[in-house]
Amino acid sequence: MSAKAISEADGKSLLTKCLPNCSYVKNKFAVVVNGSNWDEILKRNPWISTERLVVKPDQLIKRRGKLGLIHVNATAEQAREWIAERMGKEIKIGTASGLLKRFIIEPFVPHQQNEEFYLCIYAQRDCDVILFHHEGGVEIGDVDSKAVKLEVDLEEKVTVELIEKKLMQNVPPKKKRLIAMFIRDLFQVYSESYFTYLEINPLGILQADPLGEEGSDNTGTQCPTLFDKCAVVVEESIHVLDLAAKLDQTAEFICKSKWGEIDFPPPFGREAFPEEAYISELDAKSGASLKLTILNSKGRMWTMVAGGGASVVYSDTVCDLGGASELANYGEYSGAPSESQTYEYAKTILKLMTEGSPKPDGKILIIGGGIANFTNVSATFKGIVKALQEYQKSLLEHKVSIFVRRGGPNYQEGLRVMREIGSSLGLPMYVFGTETHMTAIVGMALGKREVPKGVGFDSNAAANMFFKAQDKSSAFPSQSAMHMMENSEKTPDEKPSPEQNRHPSRGSNLPLFTNETRTIIWGLQARAVQGMLDFDYVCERKRPSVAALVYPFSGNHRQKFYYGHKEIMIPVYKEMAEAMNKHPDADVMINFASLRSAYDATLEAMQFPQIRTIAIIAEGIPEAKTRQLNKKAQEAGVTIIGPATVGGIKPGCFKIGNTGGMLDNILASKLYRPGSVAYVSRSGGMSNELNNIISRTTDGVYEGVAIGGDRYPGSTFLDHVMRYQKNPDVKMIVVLGEVGGTEEYKICDAIKSGLVTKPLVVWCIGTCAGMFTSEVQFGHAGASAHGNNETAMAKNQALKDAGAYVPESFDSLFDMIREVYDVLVRDGTIVPKPEKNPPTVPMDYSWAQELGLIRKPSSFMSSICDERGAELLYAGMPITEVFKEGLGVGGVLGLLWFQRRLPAYASEFIEMCLMITADHGPGVVQNCNAYVYRDLSWATIEVDSKPALSNNADIVGDRFGGALDAAARMFSQGLDSGQLPMEFVNEMRKKGQLIMGIGHRVKSVNNPDMRVVLLKDFVKKNFPVTNVLNYAIEIEKITTSKKPNLILNVDGCIGAAFVDLLRHCGAFTREEADEFVEIGALNGLFVLGRSIGFIGHYLDQKRLKMGLYRHPWDDISYIMPDHLQHLRPASFE
Fold first, then answer.
1. Mean pLDDT across the chain
2. Is 780 part of the annotated catalytic residue set?
3. CA angle centred on 1064, ends 1062 and 1066, rounded to 5°
4. Is the confidence at residue 64, as pLDDT, over 60?
5. What is the pTM of this model?
């Protein structure tokens, strides 16, 4: 959503902070909410105790004065009592009921009726409007008919003289300049702070307080404003008494520092649920779109719909079929959310759905959506399935019936997963694909339509389309097509040469796209580019439509793509100018830049005369920026499609980005050749649904454009309808309008004036909006009515009255299109042509693998870690559980090395081993090696500790650190063979083998190694069985009797104890325990532990800035080779 209402307190706070006009008395106020401490409020706002007050609710309630919700001229005590009487009280305003829970207290400003004025500034497509009336207040009445209006063109400078001339006719001369200066300054703040609506009623103009107001400059002295070089003598003061405002929420990334912390409260009558805030937070963190509005938490019909347009259509259908009172929520997910994001979204809805007591007649869950363009249906459905499994018990308790309908990339796999989970959950679940009309499941759910027995699309249907593309028999598009004409298709209109000057986009006779159209794409969108190339191939274009890519964040290079079976290279440029110069035949720019960059990228593209059309994909561009782009595009003769669009498609010629979805949908909807029906829609997802509907009811789509869901799209419905009207190949037009805006009325005027004569089928979605008790902002930013004439019902009626074909509901749009088409076939206007078979299309390996059509052996296998899902898994344990259970490093090591969750004492023992082996002084060989490597790195190239660490780890072996594995094998084998410790020692002596884990150069029986003492004490105290360690200790007694330093060392103690741990902790079989010893797991403990010390010594040498190391000569014995012993070393000559 773009324009969002803010509280009066936030609006006045913003004006107080940003409005520099010296006549303006800065607002001071206090906000009281349920639970506020009155004494604290008085302490922070001492003026409350000394001034007369105005008190009113601050909850987006209109006409509070007429409703008796304003208390004026009150004392502090009266204000407190008035608030206390109403706090938490439920009131009804129209059809909306809600609780009063937020109030604003302000100083009372005594004034006369003739000192009240009305002022409003709001945005329109091509201008900003300043509405002013010299009489304000509660009794203003119909202000639109009374007020004078000043339309300010975009980027026009507003002057005091202009305001005086246009708005001040009925204002006393003495006040004209004062008010005009205030309006000018306010308009500047309105523009810079990205307001979309700012209403002040009443605006009070009073004689200035001779003593001056605290926080203002109203002292009757000279006071310059921010926008004036001269000064003005202030004799009167301006008071913003009552304010209503909306901000463009999408501009937050621009205005965050100016706005500060601003809340966007829900409309009165609808409580803010924490779940809504959670989904809003998810939405803000995601590149996808996630929306949720709770309408009636006790309702029995819940929706989980994909797509901004589709979500409105489903809500419409529920209401049309009599389910408005039971509709529990409105929401949508779109923009390719991940499996984890969809899981969180679905889990939130299911939690709300299963709260409270079950209903006798059960509940209904609609998992719906149109045909996606690029969202992976299988991935999103897997997230939903995970949530359904989690809430299985609750869903059964509430007797939930589930109806599913979806299409789009990999939808066959998604439907298969849904069917499988339906049977395992034990819930009534009905699953349908693109063969079923989108909203048919709503009628089935409400018992208005029979549930068919045959369901879904075969999972291999997509593969069949690919493999059998050339073998299809000729199929005729409509049952009513009784006559055929064996003529070849007309060649699409020729493309103008790139040297040709731009023509104005409005009313141009030139087609936007032909089969020679070439485009430059801003952004590295490999998937979209490959989709466009596949479309080009199936349309049998002579050359690909993508000329080049522009990506400022990398150098010039080339990227590989496929054109059919052939590999091609497409250049990527860092600079747009270079791309334009090297590809002068490209006349379309597809802008995939983010919402922060899209504006600048579009402005840059419009500087090149060769560009005639720009598609802006990004959603969330501030409305003010969009309006500026529209103005510049109109001046430059450029057609803009978007923002917030998937693009458009011209079958047989060209498609924008992801429009039309994947190739299975392109083939199923016959978008590889032109038909006779052209359409224009706001929604990208719904445009794909129109592709499906039109292909099933007519001879197919000639062209389709999704103008975008923002309030001010670059091109309008009428722009494209007029293009279709002038194109002789278009015989019929379909328009899918939407609640919000007035662009559909221009179509009415065009029909009435005779400019549009072709049959036009139209439906405006959003008819449900009037049935809700509170205002609902739908998925698209522009889908919100700002007046009765912007409602979908009003627009549908106006279109019907004008002569357009308007169905009863979206549910019957399918039948209406077919009926109109059949009439055109019968009267000969449309002559169906033989079906054209597309070429065989190669299938992407990854897609074929997702569909389960192929398999390949994996190059690698992993059984300990999985990062693919919602969160990281260690041996099947989610990372959140690892921290929740406090497993620590030892526990994680157990999961990753041994695939088990070990007992607490085992994890503690592992951590103890790591601490004990972390270091043993700078004199050991590896730490000396770290010093040498440090010198080498300084002497040659500056590197970090990684190479030194790797170099040192290579030294670990049986004689240094590697004795853990060898000691564990020796001691365990000796014990298992039944040898007595003495027999074991004697055997090793006979073999001439050293006993690994026995002996130390420094430590002895008389000078014990405290590390070993600590280990033995811990093991004896905590391990259930210590057979191997006991065996090693007995061997130590024998060896130390011969030589006191032949003690059980750290390696031997850890090795023996770890065998006891593996064998007797209860997590492993005997075979598994022996395998871990054989594969060298225990040496890993030493390497991991000693790495801590390696890095420490390396950093220590760096920190101490030690010089280059050279080993002293007196520690080196210089000798000659044996055959040269008679010669003296050269250094002594």
1. 86
2. yes
3. 90
4. yes
5. 0.79
